[in-house]
Amino acid sequence: MFGAARTAASHRHHVSDARQDGARRNRTCRISESNHTMTSAIASTLPRLLIASLAVLATVPAQAQKDWPTRPITMILPAGAGGSSDPLTRLLADEMGKRLGQPIVVQNRPGAAGNLGMVQAARAPADGYTLVISWTGPLATNLALYKDVGHDPQKDFAPIGRIGCTPNVLAVSRSMPANTLKEFMDYSRQNTGKVSYGTTGVGSSWHIAGEMLSRQSGNSLTHIPYTGPSPAMTDLMGGRLQAIFPVVPMTVPYVRSGDMKVLAVFSQRRSAVLPEVPSTTELGHPELVSDTCFALLAPAGVPEPIVARLNGTLNDVLANPASKKTIEAMGIDVQSGAPKALSDYLATEIPRQASLVKASGATAQ
């Protein structure tokens, strides 16, 4: 009896254990299914979250470009304050800043014929907050003069636009007997080695223009390099030099005061601020063309929308009657245009300057 009872009780225990095991298995299955469902849901959600996150991140640069500029902009001028390019730079900085709604601060960075300022600009972040005003020397001539200028005008910069050009002139002392370009060339041939001309340094536009004329005159001129324009102009007015080849803006005050004579403008046409002076082209010497052209650039990689806005702003300033009149009064012939016009200019001017430098024998190595 007791054995039968124990057998029945054992059977009930087995049944109970089996039921409990089944319940545990069912709970485990439900938990597993629940975990699988949750994992699947998370897995299906992650790509959507990732895409959404990437989309948000992608809008940050676009929004930054749309809002640009939100702070002051720096405009580097690779020349000292007070030079011939300084008034032009400050005018553009002021007028462009007004139109962009943020001040543009001019930073003079002279040294190595403009190379130092160009290097600084090339290394700046490509965010539209650093610009550089440059000219023919750092953009083209220096590449043929120096072993390493530290920058590549075509690769390290995004062209914004051209600004304008100013030609070199032949200026002579009041004591010089010649009063025309022909008379000067004849006089220098008759006095080979006795006619000296001063420049702002080897390879400068003054030097290139002087060597061009010297070749046309039978290599009759003697080059004397100075450390800057002021001492050369002082010596010319003092009669210690016979000629110099500055750009138009530097000569106008002295021509008006009668301290020097300008015999020719190295250009295809006359200058608006020196209309009485003939151009070399109209005098029968179209090969005697030498000028300094100014341009606005930014570090390579600046977003295209910012480049487009800068170009439009620059052209708007150049087209403004008041601004244009002021720039032309500086002796600069305004030449606006698209960024590609500046790229095309560099593509032709760099090899042209290289040939001029080679012919002149100039070097700044």
Q: Under the CATH scheme, which architecture of the largest domain would be assigned?
A: 3-Layer(aba) Sandwich
Number of distinct helices? 11
Helix fraction bin: 40-55%
What overall geometry do the principal axes of the alpha carbons give?
elongated
The CATH superfamily of the largest domain is Bordetella uptake gene, domain 1
Query: CA-to-CA gap between the ends?
Result: 122 Å
Q: Average pLDDT across residues?
A: 86
Count of individual beta strands = 11
Give a short account of the largest sheet.
Answer: 6 strands, mixed
Spans with pLDDT under 50 lasting ≥5 residues? Answer: 1-19, 56-60
Strand order of the largest sheet: 2-1-3-10-4-11
Quick recap of the structure?
It contains eleven helices and eleven strands.
Protein model, in words:
- The structure is a single chain.
- This protein folds into 2 domains: 73-166 and 292-360, D-Maltodextrin-Binding Protein, domain 2; 169-265, 3-Layer(aba) Sandwich (D-Maltodextrin-Binding Protein, domain 2), CATH 3.40.190.
- It contains 11 helices and 11 strands.
- The protein has helices at residues 2-67, 86-100, 115-122, 136-145, 181-190, 205-216, 229-237, 248-257, 304-319, 321-329, 339-360, and strands spanning 73-77, 104-108, 130-135, 157-167, 169-172, 195-199, 221-225, 243-244, 261-265, 291-299, 333-334.
- Strands 2-1-3-10-4-11 form a 6-stranded mixed β-sheet, sandwiched between helices. The protein has a 5-stranded mixed β-sheet with strand order 7-6-8-5-9, with helices on both faces.
- Helix 6 (205-216) links the parallel strand 6 (195-199) and strand 7 (221-225).
- Helix 4 (136-145) runs parallel beside helix 11 (339-360).
- The chain is elongated, with a radius of gyration of 37 Å.
- The N and C termini lie far apart (122 Å).
- The model is unreliable at 1-19 and 56-60 (pLDDT under 50).
